[in-house]
Amino acid sequence: MKRFKLTFSLIIISALVLCSCHKDHDKYDFAETSSARSFIQQYDSIDELEFRQLETRRISVNIKHSKMGGLWNTRVYDSLCTKHNDLSFYGKINVGKASHIGYTAIGTDFQKIEISCNKGYNAEHPEGTLLNDIVRLISGTPYPYIKSGYKKTFNKTEPLSALYEVHGRVFLGSYYLNTYLDFKDSQQIPVFPVDKKVSELTKEDLALLSPYFGEFYVEKLPEAKGDYEFTVKLYGDDGNVYSGKAIMKF
User: Fold this and answer.
1) Closest alpha carbon to 192 in 235, 150, 156, 236
2) Are 250 and 124 in contact (CB under 8 A)?
């Protein structure tokens, strides 16, 4: 009988502890905020690149990535925050699991991009010629915001190209903005559009891109219909060249 009473008491105590933990867990999930030293909350590494034709002129970029630096690896995270001078943000963020982790950037910044084709494309682009002047990158980056000391922002009401309006706004980071209390429901956002020909891209345009990266858009069609194999090379500031291929059916 005593043994039964002891067992029953342990069950009751365990249930009370679980309820208490559950209450604290709920409070954490939905109520807590924190002051973040850096705007970038996580850095990811590139494991593999995949390119795929979405429509006649659009090329999607799928980056298979893994965690590189964050709360689980503060040494790598701190070095990348120092590299980008992202050390004095101190903005309020949601820290519960109900919110997104915050802006995640690729740990590698890119120096340049090269796009080529396996055969002659048109009179101006014979085999072996880069197609950088007829392919456009649609993306977004918070680099200007961080570089300005967290002062320069982009107004979502500013006019954008018709192409960016349709396919680019997703890269302005709507998936994480609720994490940052200063930008929740705000017209001013910390991510700037990148909408340029590949030949016109600067290193700043290619810094702190998210793992969602962006899309490429082919501005000119080839002279002859058929299948064209595009090779895309991303030159990283880590000395690596990340490349992949896409079969384009025109």
Assistant:
1) 156
2) no
The CA-CA-CA angle for residues 250, 48, 125, to 5°, reads 35
CA distances from residue 54 to 191, 228, 249 in whole angstroms, order as listed: 25, 14, 10
Query: One-letter amino acid identity for 97?
Result: K
Q: For 84-140, where are the alpha helices, taking DSSP H only?
A: none
Vertex 68: Cα angle to 65 and 73 (nearest 5): 150
71-87 pLDDT, tens digit per residue, is: 567 899 999 999 999 99
The encoded tokens of residue 202 equal 């600067």
pLDDT tens-digit map of 90-109:
999 887 654 457 899 999 99
H/E stretch holding 163 reads helix 162-167
Residue 248 tokens read as 């384009």
| Neighbouring-strand partners of residue 2 | none
Among residues 171, 175, 221, 230, the alpha carbon closest in space to that of 195 is found at 171
Mean pLDDT, the chain, rounded, equals 85
Domains of the chain, residue spans: 33-249
Find, among 207, 240, 214, the residue nearest to 110 by Cα: 207
- Name the pTM for this structure: 0.83
Cross-sheet strand order for the sheet of 110-117: 110-117, 227-236, 241-249
What integer is the mean pLDDT of 129-156?
A: 97
What stretch of H or E contains 232? strand 227-236
Residues 6 or more apart in contact with residue 106 via CB below 8 angstroms = 43, 44, 45, 46, 63, 65, 208, 209, 210, 211, 213
